[in-house]
């Protein structure tokens, strides 16, 4: 069995017999309560439905919306604002001299942090089916100059197991890149490191559960053909790459040892695309369904 621990709370995974035996052993050593199947955990709701488990945040979403008087607001299909190079036309540009700073009586940062990813997603969740046998699959993407005023790009990646997302990230790159190809190499580097860790964790679980190791390389999908070609060749010091640190080509080594296989996918099918840029509502809905 596998225990996941958060402070004083435990979730125990395993067969019914293993869980029952584990609970008896723990009760013999510690004062504890058996609350049965997990239904709430760290703001997540777990529903055991036919064919799998649905994880969602409907109750948390309602709580947050009411806290900021947004429970009657209309949901948006694509709340992300398209960035603009023009200082005057960009709503997310630097603060203007004549703009006032909001005081502490207006919890602006709290509202943005809590609401930004919830708009229009109250009824969505992650459905982990027990029928899909697909293993670990990754998608990586970059949003070139997503922050035009600071000349920074965006890294996005998502990994699915059994067809549903288990790990994802969207973050601004700390290095100023010189091209979309350069930014893409940084994004793949981040995704590859996550991939290596996820493989290590899943292989450990499979081994402990008496299952065969998955020796096939993990497919990492990417939509930049030039970047994929560069990674196949490895680090070659030339005019186009001599300014890029060699460490960002580590994915090439993982390809050679059979850990990762970087393959091309169309941008419209790249699930990580929604983590790096503003998309049309129809495209956003399609990618959401993919993960």
TrEMBL record:
Transmembrane segments: none annotated. The keyword Transferase applies. Coiled coil: none annotated. Keywords: Nucleotidyltransferase, RNA-directed DNA polymerase, Transferase. Residues 2-81 form the Reverse transcriptase Ty1/copia-type domain. GO terms for molecular function: RNA-directed DNA polymerase activity. InterPro entries: RVT_2. It comes from the Eukaryota. The keyword Endoplasmic reticulum does not apply. This is Reverse transcriptase RNA-dependent DNA polymerase. It comes from Arabidopsis thaliana x Arabidopsis arenosa.
